[in-house]
Amino acid sequence: MSSDLQLTKRFGIENSRNIDVARKNGAYSSLEKLFQMKPTELIDEVKKSNLKGRGGAGFPTGMKWSFVPQNTGKPVYLCVNADESEPGTFTDRYIIENDPHLLIEGIICGAWALQCHTSYIYIRGEYEKQFEMLNVALAEARKAGLVGKNILGSGFDLEIWTHRGAGAYICGEETGLIESLEGKKGQPRIKPPFPAVVGLFNCPTIVNNVKTLCHIPWIIEHGGDAFAAIGTKDSTGTNIFGVSGHINNPGYWELPFGMHVPEFLEKYAKGIKGGKLKAFIPGGSSTPVLTPEETEDLYLTYESMMAHKTFLGTGGMIILNEHTDMVRALKTLTHFYADESCGQCTPCREGTSWLDRILTRMLAGEATTRELDMMVEIADNMEGRTICALAAACAMPVRSFVTKFRPDFEKYIKPAVFAGAAVS
Amino acid sequence: MVKLTINGKEVEVPEGTNVLEACLGKGVQLEHFCYHRYLPVDGNCRTCMVELETPRGRALTIGCNTVVAEGMVVHTTSETAVRAQKSALEFLLLDHPLDCPICDKSGECYLQNHYVDHGRYEPRHVNPRYFKGDKALDIGDHIVLDAERCVLCTRCTRFLDHIPGSSELGIIRRGHEAKITTFPGKVVSNDYSGNITDVCPVGALTLKEFRFKQRVWLLKKAKSVCQGCARGCSITVEHNFNRVYRYMPRENKDLNRSWMCDDGRFSFQNLDENRLMLPMLKGKEVSVVDASTVFGQLLSSVKPTEIGAIVHGSSSLETMYQVKKLFEKIGSANAAVFIPPANGKGDKILKLPSLVSNENGARFLGMSLDSESIAKKAASGEIKMLFVIEADVLGPAVKDKYEAIKQAANLIVLSDKITETAKAANVAFPVRNFVETNGSYINATSLLQAARRAYEPENGDKILPAALLVGEIANLLGFTDQRFEDPSAVFNSISKEYGELGGVKFRKIPGRGIQLSLPPIGPLPFEGVKVDFNIFPDEYSTASQIEEAEKSQGITVDKQ
């Protein structure tokens, strides 16, 4: 049903980036209703919708907004996280390419709820074209009186700025993003205090993902209850699911939550390419990998993923077929995390590189069984011991790869010359 | 106060204390690298891991960024917490060069301590080690950087950002390639740079002035007071074989926190320079017996009322008191304290323009500060014998005003150095400097502190402290009750005489000093970290606990 589409409804329309085309097709239609709502009403509506942050952590958006302290005398900032760098994730990019005005509309809605007058869009450094597109769209919106002083005569002011990152994964972490936006080295901040209280320039700040904000106009138009009716009880609304890897039809689809994974892979992704399914990474490379057996009763919902001890994450799935060498696949991931660790916390700084170096040795046929066991232990020692979740993002795939695909790893283990050598 | 339970024991700490401080203050050992009491919390080393009991089960968290709450239950020795602490150590040691035998921090290194206490595991790391390079890199006037040993705790960068505000050091690169360095072509150059070697928990930053001079476990320590300026920072004199190897700032929350300036820190270098070891007659060295004979003849040729004295404002309270007593007994007002002009470089952190360390001591004793009038009296012949005690009144800065005393009087000098005044003296007696004897000083903020004897000079029986030598002179003049065994005994009688000290004995003067009610001298700014500090263990530990802790660190308290 096309009426169910919230994020991709204007995708495919010719010239959909243009403000006139977008407005003809319903862009900014929520604003009229928005300015008649009280900010608290909007927050309540979002709470009712049970919308969860689409950036990966899945934190309820309405609750996050309500953490902003009232009457502090300080400005409130809304930062839009468009630093989409998680391997396997590419859906924010298509929103900016196809419908930047939906994002701007979402920002206006979010800013009204938070009574914020300055918003920053922090966009990934590599998204150069998308940055230009966003700037063009912003200029159009500004000209049309949708951004700037007194938006549509409502008396509400909102300035939106775009800011390009320099290509660091860690700047997608909310406090890393704030540090980077302040002009510092992108290193996550220690919490507490949380950014909702002390954030950008020491002011209350909310960092929301692109997709999260893009849902808000629909919620305003149709109500939080209507949103909550879509999907399942805990996973409400729709999401853009992206699929990449060994798949016949890689791409992205906006679907309500709750789809059966094997059905999704057959119906939309048109089956596995080059053989049978070997491994399924559900939501970006940091989520624990699943075996084909585990995907049999897996649904695209937060709760079903939790039941399988993994996460929906960003909804960017990676499919690996039966010919994949899991050791090399994991090496690619650990290399990424070792390179992208900001170097602040000890377990992450040293652990990611240690794991990467063990895998380097393993691929060269020099590692022992003991080191294979050690990898799981190192992963355990990293997870949950750091300021941000990057250590966990590296530890989770390592632990799941090694435990679920151990035979693959054992093939690389140096054969023991004599009995004692295997354990030393 | 907040009640919480640490390892099953209920304790009480002030509100706002963090869990790490609460543990340390209650004698629970919790290792840490990045946390420093006087720097903002950064929480990057992940070593001070504790387990908290929460409604949702046990949670692992860092102690330094967790503020205590009523009824909090903390575990530092639970299996999970210990594993987290140990693993952090293993990660830190992963690429550490382990060059302890040639490392100057060896013996006071947090990594070593942590390993001895909680590590002692079989190394599991078989990968080739990653070399960060930058071994023994010269990064400033006083500082040598060894990036390989660095644990990236950022204490140094936080110190430079928040105390002197000069921010010369920063971290470049990411992940395990991250390292501390300066901006290209720039060096660490500020008046407080020595402190970054103190805050460095490992051997990454070392002092050029201390490198390869002495192993730290051989050093003996004595609590003392810096003589660099009127601030009188609390310091520890670290010495071996009658030689000072370094001054270290001693924690004193209200005075110098745990910092000291470079001028003060390196002032030990000229302690033994140009020392007066034997008495001198008109610039010629003679034996003690000869000098005493000459002095005896000179003394007997003048009447006591024709004697005058000038004491330096940096002399100890004991010396000043002895002089004051002597002249009270003689019944003349011919004694004054010499305060040289304040020509130091003051700043907004610790340094004060006045370089006199005991000016408030003179005020406390009620002594005259008009030493020029004494000089005039000497020039006019009213004073026939002038004692100049530890003051170089003929030195370049003040020469013009005091030149006349050269011709006019019998000049008797008590000095630890061969100064211009000592050279011109009829008789110059050597005395001990402040590290060789006990003494007390009242600084510009009216804080009385004790500088305790670090060691006795080699020919200690021939070189007396100025306070005792003045007593001997008084004895020659017939005032026998001014002879003392040690300057600490002089202090004890001052304490008896001046009610404000409440009869405190020298050995009981607390490490952080006694605050007196004298008005402070001059502007006393202390700017720097703009962070709320309400997290001090000494606010809830008793004095005896601090003494105990200092004893365990080898900081000795003299017997007197």
Question: Could you describe the 3D structure shown?
Answer:
- The complex is a heterodimer of chains A (424) and B (560).
- The model of chain A has no long low-confidence stretch (mean pLDDT 93).
- Chain A contains 18 helices and 8 strands.
- Chain A folds into 3 domains: 2-229, Rossmann fold, CATH 3.40.50; 241-321, Roll (Ubiquitin-like (UB roll)); 326-410, NADH-ubiquinone oxidoreductase 51kDa subunit, iron-sulphur binding domain (de novo design (two linked rop proteins), Up-down Bundle).
- By secondary structure, chain A is an alpha/beta fold.
- Helices cover 24% and strands 19% of the residues of chain B.
- Chain B has helices at residues 19-25, 79-93, 110-118, 155-162, 195-199, 262-265, 288-300, 317-330, 359-365, 371-380, 399-402, 405-408, 420-424, 466-476, 487-497, 543-552, and strands at 2-6, 9-13, 49-54, 57-62, 72-75, 137-138, 143-145, 169-172, 179-182, 205-207, 220-225, 234-240, 243-249, 280-281, 284-285, 307-312, 335-338, 385-389, 410-415, 427-430, 439-442, 447-451, 514-515, 555-556.
- Chain B starts with a strand and ends with a strand.
- The chains are: A alpha/beta (424), B alpha/beta (560).
- Chain A binds chain B through residues 168, 170, 185, 190, 192, 338-347, 349-354, 357-358, 360-361, 370-371, 374, 381, 384-387, and chain B through 41-47, 49, 60, 65, 83-84, 87-88, 90-92, 94-95, 124-128, 130, 151-152, 171, 173-178.
- Tally of domains of chain B: 3
Pair of chains with the largest interface and how many residues each contributes? A-B, 33 and 34 residues
Terminal CA distance of chain A reads 61 Å
Beta-strand residue percentage of chain A: 5-15%
Category by helix and strand content of chain A = alpha/beta
